[in-house]
Design a protein that fits this description.
single chain, Elongation Factor Tu (Ef-tu), domain 3, five-stranded antiparallel beta sheet, 2 helices, elongated
Length: 168
Amino acid sequence: MSEKICVGAIAGAFGVRGEVRLKSFTADPKEIASYAPLETSDGARRFDVKITRQINNGLAARLSGITSKEEADALRGTQLFVPRDRLPSLPDDEFYHADLIGLEVTDTGGTPLGKVLAVLNNGADDLLEISAPGQKQSVLLPFTKSAVPTVDLAQKKIVADPPEGLFS
């Protein structure tokens, strides 16, 4: 499990006074500011965050030290991280996406199905993108209780009961 968790990304400038378009990956998007200071992946820069308003596809925010459109634009694509210990504990049946990436996936009989590459959200449910041995393309497995009955973070594995034919 990683020490830092990505909680958002900067999508570019919003306006001309240094505000940024912020994509939040937290359950309640506006809560991203409560985890501040947010830092870049290498830890070289840290930002306090003040959400100014909700906008289409994200939030408008002020980041400490950013005062111009040019500075805000230069941060486009920057992911923002927090140390894991600043995040709240989750109930037993909820997981941080970062904890699922890299886990081995087997079926209910113990046959290896692959490894989790990413967790994607299609709007309705999350999907696990799995690199399956012997397949050229990754497989998208619905991350539902019926398709994924067991997630064992301690053993770093997932037991799946995939729909018929998904891994053939």
